[in-house]
Amino acid sequence: MPPTFVLTLSCPDRPGLVYAVTRWIAEGGGNILDSQQFTDTSDGEFFLRVHFETGQDLEALRTGMQPVAQEHSMDVTIVEAERPLRTLVMASKDGHCLNDLLFRQSTGGLNIVVPAVVSNHADLERLVARFDVPFHHVPVTPESKPAAEARLLELVDELDVDLVVLARYMQVLSDATCTALAGRAINIHHSFLPSFKGARPYHQAHDRGVKLIGATAHYVTNDLDEGPIIDQGVLRVDHRMTPADLARAGRDVESQTLSRAVQLHAESRVLLNGPRTVVFA
């Protein structure tokens, strides 16, 4: 069976875009397995995801697609569909999201491989060791934060990391680090954004007497908890629940929402559209 690839693109909408891409695939001996498209009528931007098989290799495909992309002003990405994303996971003291990601990866439930876990505390080292994943304790203080983030970026380069996941990592990354990881860092926030940004969202939710709590997986940007949203989950709650009850109930929603977002990204199903995303689920 020939290898399969995923092509994603965005460009200004115009007639003939789908034809141009599908003709290029067919002329190269490829066969389309799945195709999804969307036009944002508010700004005239076109988005396409095509999963196809072909006997060509990745570099030949990328080179061959360039004339088509240039003719239609396309921003194109082509990746190997079966290749797992090298994913560095960051966490602090809460281990539920980290545990869920490591378990799903170890059982083949996520198309990722985790070469390292980074934490500003040592609490989760034993958990990570059970999955035979290297654990890096990188303490963070106001004085050491620049050095800690420099070490993080060193690991990203040394380990050839494709994606960084903040699995309840309770430190705010600097603007410089957010920029360096733009489009390849996902955070889980334990509220249904845009409600209850920042710290202690379950306490904020309790104070407002909400009847639904949620979790939001989004790309990391310079603006805290404002990045493009990938996925969200919700859970019904009631007046009897304390902030601690809300936090306990929310852990499953956080874990599931983050895992869905990571899988969507790993399968090249998420395309950025300014402050929003197009998600081909």
From TrEMBL:
Q: Which PROSITE patterns does this entry report, sorted A to Z?
A: ACT (PS51671)
- Which GO biological process categories is it annotated with? 'de novo' IMP biosynthetic process; one-carbon metabolic process
Checking Gene3D superfamilies in the record gives: 3.30.70.260, Formyl transferase, N-terminal domain
One of its Pfam families is: ACT_6
Q: Which residues carry out catalysis?
A: D225
Q: In which pathway does it act?
A: Purine metabolism; IMP biosynthesis via de novo pathway; formate from 10-formyl-5,6,7,8-tetrahydrofolate: step 1/1
Extract the InterPro entries matched here. ACT-like_dom_sf (IPR045865), ACT_dom (IPR002912), Formyl-FH4-Hydrolase_C (IPR041729), Formyl_transf_N (IPR002376), Formyl_transf_N_sf (IPR036477), PurU (IPR004810), PurU_ACT (IPR044074)
What EC number(s) is this enzyme filed under?
Answer: 3.5.1.10
Which major enzyme category is it? hydrolase
**Known CDD domains for this protein?**
ACT_F4HF-DF, FMT_core_Formyl-FH4-Hydrolase_C
Give all residue intervals belonging to the ACT domain. Answer: 6-81
Q: Which reaction does it catalyse?
A: (6R)-10-formyltetrahydrofolate + H2O = (6S)-5,6,7,8-tetrahydrofolate + formate + H(+)
Q: What does this protein do?
A: Catalyzes the hydrolysis of 10-formyltetrahydrofolate (formyl-FH4) to formate and tetrahydrofolate (FH4).
Similarity section: Belongs to the PurU family.
Q: What HAMAP family has UniProt attached to this entry?
A: PurU
Its recorded name reads Formyltetrahydrofolate deformylase
Organism the protein comes from: Aeromicrobium terrae
